[in-house]
Design goal:
The protein has 543 residues and is an alpha/beta fold. The protein contains 24 helices and seven strands. Helix 9 (177-192) crosses helix 17.
Length: 543
C-alpha cells in the first residue's frame, strides 16, 4: 500500500504569499463570481428537480469548503450543469432524501479516492469518453429546459429521454407565448452582451431584466414564487438523513456516477485553471476537499458539488490570486440570501431557462462533431457511442461502455504493434532464432503460439533463441506462454534461450521463478552470445 498523501490545502501553503493587493484582488473576484453564481445555483437546482435554496446552500457550503481545503489555488466549487441529469433521475426514482444519502456516499468515495492517490488515475479516462458524455449531458440539459423555455404545462417530467420527449410533445398546445418571448429576450441579452461590459456578468443582467419585465408588464409567466413559494431568508439547518443498508445498496450505482463525474469535472476544471495561471494543482488534495464538501453539504440542505469550469475561469479573469476568492464567493452568496432572498420569488423561470440553455450550449463544444473526420474510426466510435448512450440510457452505462470500447481498441492496437519474426541470417536447421518486438501481454500472447510448433519431436530444431531486446513489457499471461514454450521444448530434449531481456522482463522472470526454471545459463544479455551458445548445444548443422 502506498503511503497516504499529506492533507495540505493550498490555502495553508499560500497564505504567506498574500499581501494587500492580492487580498483586494481576491475579494473583488470573489464578489463578482458570487453574484454570477447566484442565478446558476438556482437554475441548476430547479433543473435537477430540487428547490432553489438547495442550489444556493450547495454553492455556499461546498464552495467554501472546496476553496478552503482544495488543491487548486483558484478553483470555484458548487453545483454544476453536469449533475443535472444524474440528480434529476435520482430525485424522480428515489426521492430527495435518498439523493442526500447518495451525495454522502459519493463524498466518502471521493475522499477515499484522494487518500488512495487516485487523482492521477482520472487522467486515464480517454478524451473521447469525456467528450461523448459531456455532449450527451448538454443535450439532456437542453431537453430539460424546453418546459420552462416554452412555458409548457407538463407537471414533473419523467427522467427517461423518450418519455420526456413524449410528454413535451403532448403538451405543445399549452405553449405560453409570454414565456417564450421573455426567454428569447433573455437569451439574446446573454449572447449579445458586449464584451467590454463583461465585468457585470451577462446572466445577472438577464435575470434582473427578466424579473423587471415581469413586474412592469405583469407577464403571465411562472416564477420561483409561484412554483416554490420563494427562498427562505435563513441559514440552512442541520439534518442527518436516515440511513439503511437496504436503501444504500440500491444507491451504490448512482453514488458511483456522482463520484466519478465529480472527480472528472473538478480535475478538468483545476487543469483549465492551471493553464490560465501557469500553476500545478494537487489532484489528490482536490479530491479529498471535494469529498469533504459532498459529505457536509447534504447535511445542510445542499446536494452534490464539484469544480465549476465557467466560474473558475471567471474567477481567474477577475484577477484572483488564491483560495480566498472562492471563500469570498461563498460568503457573498450567503450575504445575498440573508439580505435579498425575498426578491427571488419574482424571478421568472423562463429567464433561468435561458441561462441554462447558454450553459448547455457552451458545454457541448459541438465543433467536435465537425472535426471528427480528422480522427480515427476508433475515436469516433467511442465518442458517438458514449454520446448516444448518455442521452438514451444514463451516464453510468455510457461511461462503462465507453471505457470497455476504449480498452478493447487499445488492446487491439497494442497487439497489432507486437510481433515475432525469424532472424533468417541466424537460423539453421537445428538452431532457430526469433526476434520479438512490442509488448507481450494478454492481448498479444498468441503471437508466440507458432513457436510452439518447434517443440514437436519431429521438428529438426534443437535450440530456439528468442531475442526480446525490443520487447518493452511482459505481463503474467506473456510469462505463462514463455513458460509453456520452455517446458514443451525441454520435454522433447530441446532448449529455449532468451536474449536481450530488459529491466522489466528480468524483474518478472526473477520474481516468478522463471529465471530459475529456465536456468541462468539460458539467459543472455546479447543476441550474439545466445546464438553462439545455442549452436554449441544443438551440435553441427545438418542442412
Amino acid at each position: 500500500m502506498p503511503a497516504l498523501p499529506r492533507f495540505r490545502p493550498r490555502l495553508i501553503e499560500g497564505i504567506g504569499e498574500y499581501n494587500a493587493a492580492r487580498l483586494r484582488g481576491d475579494v473583488l473576484a470573489g464578489v463578482t463570481v458570487g453574484i454570477l453564481a447566484l442565478p446558476l445555483a438556482i437554475a441548476f437546482a430547479i433543473a435537477s428537480g430540487l428547490t432553489p435554496e438547495s442550489g444556493i446552500y450547495t454553492a455556499i457550503i461546498a464552495g467554501f469548503i472546496i476553496s478552503a481545503l482544495g488543491g487548486s489555488r483558484v478553483q470555484i466549487g458548487g453545483p454544476t450543469g453536469a449533475f443535472i441529469v444524474i440528480v434529476y433521475g435520482i430525485v424522480v426514482q428515489y426521492g430527495v432524501a435518498n439523493l442526500l444519502i447518495c451525495t454522502l456516499m459519493a463524498g466518502f468515495m471521493l475522499l477515499a479516492m484522494g487518500l488512495l492517490r487516485m487523482g492521477t488515475w482520472i487522467r486515464f479516462i480517454p478524451v473521447s469518453v469525456i467528450s461523448g458524455f459531456t455532449k450527451g449531458i448538454a443535450v439532456l440539459i437542453l431537453l430539460s429546459q424546453v418546459r420552462d423555455f416554452l412555458g409548457l404545462d407538463t407537471g414533473q417530467l419523467p427522467a427517461q429521454f423518450f418519455a420526456q420527449i413524449a410528454v413535451l410533445w403532448q403538451a405543445l398546445d399549452t405553449v405560453n407565448w409570454a414565456a417564450v418571448a421573455l426567454a428569447l429576450a433573455c437569451l439574446a441579452l446573454i449572447v449579445l452582451w458586449p464584451q467590454a461590459w463583461r465585468i457585470v456578468p451577462a446572466p445577472i443582467v438577464a435575470l434582473v431584466a427578466g424579473t423587471a419585465a415581469v413586474a412592469l408588464f405583469h407577464l403571465p409567466v411562472e416564477t420561483i414564487g409561484s412554483r416554490f413559494g420563494g427562498i427562505p431568508q435563513t441559514l440552512p439547518g442541520f439534518a442527518f438523513p436516515e440511513l439503511s443498508v437496504a436503501t444504500m445498496r440500491h444507491l451504490i450505482g448512482p453514488a458511483i456516477a456522482i463520484a466519478l463525474l465529480g472527480a472528472i469535472e473538478s480535475l478538468l476544471s483545476a487543469t483549465v485553471a492551471d493553464n490560465m495561471i501557469d500553476d500545478r494543482h494537487d489532484p489528490n488534495q482536490e479530491l479529498m476537499a471535494q469529498g469533504i464538501a459532498n459529505i457536509i453539504a447534504p447535511l445542510f440542505g445542499g446536494f452534490c458539488a464539484t469544480g465549476a469550469i465557467a466560474r473558475t475561469s471567471t474567477n481567474v479573469r477577475m484577477g484572483a490570486f488564491g483560495p480566498v476568492s472562492g471563500m469570498v464567493h461563498a460568503l457573498t452568496l450567503l450575504a445575498i440570501v440573508l439580505v435579498a432572498a425575498p426578491l427571488a420569488k419574482h424571478v421568472p423561470l423562463a429567464a433561468l431557462s435561458a441561462i441554462l440553455v447558454v450553459v448547455a450550449w457552451n458545454m457541448g463544444e459541438w465543433h467536435d462533431f465537425r472535426e471528427m473526420r480528422r480522427y480515427t474510426m476508433n475515436y469516433r466510435a467511442i465518442l458517438l457511442a458514449t454520446f448516444v448512450l448518455t442521452v438514451v440510457f444514463d451516464l453510468t452505462v455510457a461511461v462503462e461502455v465507453g471505457l470497455v470500447m476504449a480498452a478493447i481498441f487499445f488492446i487491439t492496437r497494442m497487439s497489432s504493434l507486437t510481433g515475432v519474426t525469424e532472424i533468417s541470417g541466424e537460423s539453421s536447421g537445428r538452431v532457430r532464432a526469433y526476434e520479438m518486438f512490442g509488448s507481450l501481454f494478454f492481448g498479444s500472447a498468441n503471437k508466440l503460439e507458432p513457436l510452439l510448433a518447434r517443440a514437436d519431436p519431429g521438428d529438426p530444431c534443437r535450440a530456439l533463441v528468442l531475442d526480446i531486446q525490443r520487447t518493452i513489457n511482459i505481463d503474467t499471461t506473456g510469462l505463462d506462454i514463455l513458460d509453456t514454450l520452455q517446458r514443451k521444448l525441454a520435454k522433447n530434449g530441446k532448449t529455449l534461450l532468451i536474449t536481450g531481456a530488459g529491466e522489466q522482463p528480468m524483474s518478472l522472470f526473477r520474481r516468478s521463478g522463471f529465471a530459475e526454471r529456465i536456468g541462468a545459463d539460458r539467459l543472455f544479455p546479447h543476441r550474439a552470445a545466445g546464438i553462439a551458445r545455442a549452436r554449441e548445444l544443438a551440435g553441427p548443422a545438418t542442412d
